[in-house]
Write a structure and sequence with these properties.
Blueprint (H helix, E strand, L loop, with lengths): L1 E6 L3 E10 L2 E11 L6 H16 L6 E6 L3 E2 L2 E3 L6 E3 H8 L3 E6 H8 L8 E5 L9 E6 L3 E8 L4 E6 L11 H11 L7 H4 L4 H9 L6 H4 L6 H10 L3 H25 L4 E5 L1 H5 L1 H4 L3 H7 L5 H5 L3 E4 L4 H14 L2
Parallel strand pairs: 1-4, 4-8, 10-13, 13-14
Antiparallel strand pairs: 1-2, 2-3, 5-6, 6-7, 9-14, 10-11, 11-12
């Protein structure tokens, strides 16, 4: 059996996979609220207790975890949680010989080769170059970015913390948004906008006097209400917020495509894209993606797809754990 986990700032998804002929099949999956646990090891312990009946006579031979944060020497200091996760502690807790830690988006990157075509929504078919570099970005609690490079046998994931680089406005309105945010933050990163919290920021920028019920509750997340109202077009400010957020997302996806020359395609993952799928498909995202002056032709030829399977990081982490057994 293989144990895999997708560890984010909001939720942790853990799963058991059985292996047959190099193919993994999920056997048991459970979701945990990240902030209800002081340490990641406690989630692993609780999952192990719940999963015991599904193991039968089998045992866990390897584990892989995709975690939001940079992996340095087998240790991750979680970006949006007060956790430090390290390989040695997990090997001891699980009593397994192989534990792999990956950046969460890296785990998604490793899943792409194993996902069926129905797990993708194609925004632009383009013309992929065989073995061409791929770019991957995912907005959720934060903004993850990764690069996938072909090594002659398979794609290798190069981690990145590009989501924390400086936001670069593309229009006069976005310049004003940057000025607005600079009054609040010492640094305005892409992640401050292209994450769940960015929806309220943009809403307040566009119409500071317009509020909704979730704005008054310090424990509530306004993003679901803003996106729902925006998709329904029941609130003009919410609709405009969704348009601006989506355009900025497309622009940064185009930036990443140019930086790594992603001729193999650009993949958009993360929970937000799936939740606002109809907005992602209406042309605003792809127009901003390719709006790069002399490089519009090149970008118009790059395939762009949304990863619809929100369990992709789990699957990628599981396959990397499986690969670790053979090393």
């Amino acid at each position: 059996m293989i144990l895999a986990g997708d560890v984010g700032g909001t939720k942790c998804n853990l799963a058991l996979f059985s292996e047959k002929g190099g193919t993994l099949t999920p056997v048991f999956k459970q979701r945990f609220a990240s902030k209800e646990f002081a340490q990641f090891e406690r989630i692993v312990k609780e999952f192990s207790r719940q999963a015991a009946e599904h193991l039968g006579k089998e045992s866990i031979v390897a584990a892989g975890f995709g975690i939001a944060g940079p992996v340095i020497n087998g240790t991750v200091r979680a970006t949006n949680l007060p956790w430090i996760v390290d390989t040695k502690s997990l090997i001891k807790e699980l009593n397994v010989p192989h534990v792999v830690l990956l950046n969460d988006l890296g785990a998604t990157g490793h899943s792409i080769e194993h996902l069926p075509s129905e797990d993708f929504c194609v925004l632009n078919s383009g013309s992929p170059e065989p073995g061409g570099t791929r770019a991957l970005l995912a907005a959720g609690t934060g903004l993850g970015q990764s690069i996938l490079v072909w090594d002659g046998g398979r794609y290798r994931v190069v981690p990145s913390e590009g989501g924390h680089s400086d936001f670069a406005p593309h229009t006069e309105q976005q310049i004003e948004l940057l000025r607005f945010m600079r009054r609040r933050y010492p640094q305005v990163s892409w992640e401050l906008i292209l994450s769940g919290r960015g929806f309220r920021t943009i809403h307040e920028f566009l119409a500071p006097k317009v509020t909704h019920a979730t704005f008054e509750d310090p424990d509530a997340d306004p993003a679901p209400e803003i996106t729902r109202r925006g998709l329904e077009k029941s609130c003009r400010v919410c609709s405009d917020t969704l348009d601006l957020w989506t355009a900025i997302y497309g622009a940064e996806a185009g930036n990443l495509a140019l930086k790594v020359l992603a001729l193999g395609g650009v993949y958009v993952a993360g929970g937000i894209a799936v939740k606002i799928l109809e907005k992602m498909k209406d042309g605003i995202f792809f127009h901003a993606f390719k709006d790069k002056w002399k490089f519009e032709g090149l970008l118009s030829n790059i395939p762009v797809s949304i990863v619809l399977n929100e369990s992709a990081p789990l699957l990628g982490a599981a396959y990397e754990a499986l690969a670790a057994i053979d090393k």
